[in-house]
Every structure is written in C-alpha cells, then in structure tokens.
Amino acid sequence: MAPTLAIVGATGAVGTVMIDIINNRESVPWGDIRLIASARSAGKKITVRGVERTVVELSPEAFDGVDIALFDVPDEVSAQWAPIAAERGAIAVDNSGAFRMDPDVPLVVPEVNPEKVRERPKGIIANPNCTTLSMMAALGALHREFGLKELVVASYQAASGAGQEGIDRLYAEIEALAGKRVGVRAGDVAEALAAAGLPEETPFKAPLAMNVVPWAGSRKDDGWTSEELKVRNESRKILGIPDLKVSATCVRVPVLTTHALAVHATFERPVTVEQARKVFQEQPTIVLQDDHENQVFPTPAGVVGEDPTYVGRIRQALDFPNTLDFFVCGDNLRKGAALNTYQIAETIVG
Where does phosphate bind (predicted)? Predict the structure, then answer.
C-alpha cells in the first residue's frame, strides 16, 4: 500500500512551494496527501495532483494513518507537534530550527548524507537552514573527492529569508524610493523612507533598498549572529566533520528570493579548477555556470524559481594551497526549504 504524506503548514509560504513541487513532479509515491494547518486555515480547498483537498486543523488525530509528515511551521510549533506526529506513527521531517542540533535527530541533505534518514531514534529528521543548504550540494561533492578541511563563507541573503515581513518591507522600501534621486549622505535613504511614511522599525536593522546590511539572524555571543553560527554548526553535522574550521559572515541584500554565497574552501588534498568543474558537472542537482571568458555566472535573478544549486566563478585561491573560491546561488524557498524537505521524504520511501 502506498504511503500517506502530510504537509503541516500547507497554506504557508514554504508549504505552498512544496505543493507546487509535488504538482510538478512527473510521479509521486504517495497514496494520499493530507494538508494540515492552523484552525484559521482549516477548511480551505487546495488542489494537489489534480485532486481538490480540504485543509484539516492541526491536532493529534490529524496524524492518524500518516507515514511521513513534513513540517513547514515556526520553531515553537514544530517543537510541540513533531514529537506528537512521531508518537502517532509518522516520521516527522522538520524544516524549522527546533531539532537541527539535537544529537538524536539527523540533519539531512539527500545529496550528501542520505543514509542518515535511517538513524532517527526520535522519529524526527531535521532539514538544514536555507543558507547552509544553498552551498551543501556543492561542498558535499567536493568533500567526497578532496576532503574539506576549512571553510570561509560570505552569504548574500534575500529578504524572503526573513519571512513575509522581510518581503513586504523590501517592497515597501523600493516603492517609497521609486523615481526619487536619493542623496549620498549618511542617513539620506533612511530619511527618504521616513518621509514616505514607512515605520522606523524594520526586520533588517537598517534600510535594505539601495543598501546591504551585514547582519542576518539574532544576536549571539562575541558579535556573531544565529545565521552565522548555523552555517558553522550545521556544516559540521551534515558533512560529518565535527572539527571543521568554519567562519561565516551573513549579509542581507536587496533581493527578494535566492541566497548567494561566496565560498572559500580548503581541502586536505590538492584540487584544481578543472577537477572541481568535473565534480560539479557530474552532480545531477548542480548546474555549472562558469564561463570566465564570456562572464557567465550565477545570479539570484537568474536562479529564482529553479530547483538546482548553481555554481560559478570557480578560481584557484592565489595565496592558499589546496583552496578554491567559488560562487553559489540557490532559491532559499525551494532547495533551501521546501525541496530539500520533500527530497528527504522521497529518500525515506526510496
């Protein structure tokens, strides 16, 4: 009998993308697909795989008969309900940050560590943060060949990484500044936004339109942010390198969707640009855009809405042995969230 899949948070931003992914798959292994959301969304009709389905309210009984439950909800909701789903017999695949660093919960990227889906003592599997995921297919492939030793990353993160609030704020700032020639003095952009009636409070700590903001996530010790520590801790866990040296700087940029990362990766064994290109070309979920002569490389605007990881600007680091520099782009709502979560479910049923 074909397994039953549930999507918890089916009416949210990531849940909506997940339904789009399922609808566009050539085939799916599910006998039934159950849509679950808050009481506010219960009763809504959504068509999945040509069948109109009714969203049911989140409750313990909603998981009865479910084999795999995909959670696309805030941390606190997952923390409460993923264990309940597991108790009712479902394998919970969680896209939030609630369980990522739990030693009894595997953190899975199917291109890198698919075997970990079988090691789930709590009945829960975690999906990594979207920033980490944007580079993990590329790093995992290189690590298998050359042995990753050190990693320095600068991320350029889209406004959608801050949720709908981030998207709405960037749109509002762009609209407020449209057609205006804003001065170049410090504070001119902020003054123009205030004059347009935008509230001073923003999810980005500073104006994002016509700007970049070197801060993403919440404040942690010694000047680090939660996003930067996620890159470090999650990379170590996914790749199985507990002593991997990692340093990350996360920057918010005025892009709606798709994260980009500049990666500086040092390996145990010698590696050339040509070897790296060959490794990337052999990966079915990586698209190589690395034509230096014609200046063809990935950009967020060229990648948004796409499932693969895009890699380009591959260079041999000038002053660092066994080291490559390259640029990665990945849609943070697809591979960075919904797609990887769904791929974990596909990996489970194998």
Answer: 100
pLDDT in tens, 159-187: 999 988 999 999 999 999 998 898 878 79
Measured CA to CA in angstroms, residue 188 lies from 234, 279, 333 at distances of 38, 47, 32
Element (H, E) at 340: helix 339-349
Residue 203: pLDDT over 80: yes
Determine how many CB atoms are found less than 10 A away from the CB of residue 181.
7
Q: Does residue 48 form part of some domain?
A: yes
Record the tokens describing residue 99, joined without a space: 């369980």
Report the binding-site residues: 11-14, 40-41, 100, 157, 160-161, 252, 332
- Domain span holding position 116: 5-127+337-349
Q: How many residues does the chain have?
A: 350
Annotated binding site for phosphate: 100
Q: Indicate whether 267 and 324 sit together in one domain.
A: yes
- Give the DSSP H/E element, type plus range, for residue 32: strand 32-37
Interatomic CA distance for residues 229 and 221, integer angstroms: 10
Catalytic residue set? 130, 259
Whether the model clears a pTM of 0.85, i.e. scores above it, the answer is: yes
Q: How many domains does the chain have?
A: 3
Report the chain's terminal Cα–Cα distance, integer Å: 14
- Are 122 and 136 in a shared domain? no
Residue set of the binding site for substrate:
157, 252
Q: Are residues 255 and 278 in the same domain?
A: yes
CATH of the domain at 45: 3.40.50.720
Instruction: Choose among 310, 304, 314: nearest CA to 277.
Output: 314
Same domain, 286 and 146: yes
**Which string of DSSP letters, residue by residue, matches 211-254?**
--BS--S-B-GGG-BHHHHHHHHHHHHHHT-TT-EEEEEEEE-S
The CA distance from 49 to 41, in Å, is 20
Q: What is the identity of the amino acid at 178? A: A
Domain match, 21 and 143 both? no
Mean pLDDT throughout 32-55? 97
Residue 30, in any domain of the structure: yes
